[in-house]
Specification:
10 helices, about 70% helix, UraD-like, mainly alpha
Length: about 180
Amino acid sequence: MTHVAAAGLERLNSLPAEAAEQELRKCCGSTNWIRRMVGQRPFRNASQCLEMADRLWRESSAEDWLEAFRHHPRIGEKKAAAGNSGDAQRWSHAEQAGASNAAPEVSAALAEGNLAYENCFGYIFIVCATGKSSEEMLAILRQRLQNDPGKEIHVAAEEQRKITRLRLEKLLSGG
């Protein structure tokens, strides 16, 4: 573990519970997941913290997942349904960089696809967008529209887990 990550972990471990909750909310919008993570401190190292984050996420309920989804903007948009901190907004913008310079027809198709997805499943299309082009995200969206609701909630939850992990790594590294 780098010195920076060790310092980030030490900081997370030493924060009062309320402040630690605010920091973890930058990574995931599920109140239950956040409180359970705070309750698991102190973490011995970054690996233990990341493994616990994954485990607690997988043990979370569909309601917890849906709460977390509301903390994300639609692909190609800037504002989430639920409020986010400046760091979370900045990270989200960077994660969706591939959608920000999409061709007009791809942007329009993403907007249309987002709406179709929400109408089909009742929540926003969530994908770990880091490193993906707008065209890749659109292809993923179209493919996932073919899923049944029981499968899709688990696919979306896994995408949220990946996003949470990336953000937690950023939090620990001071990014």
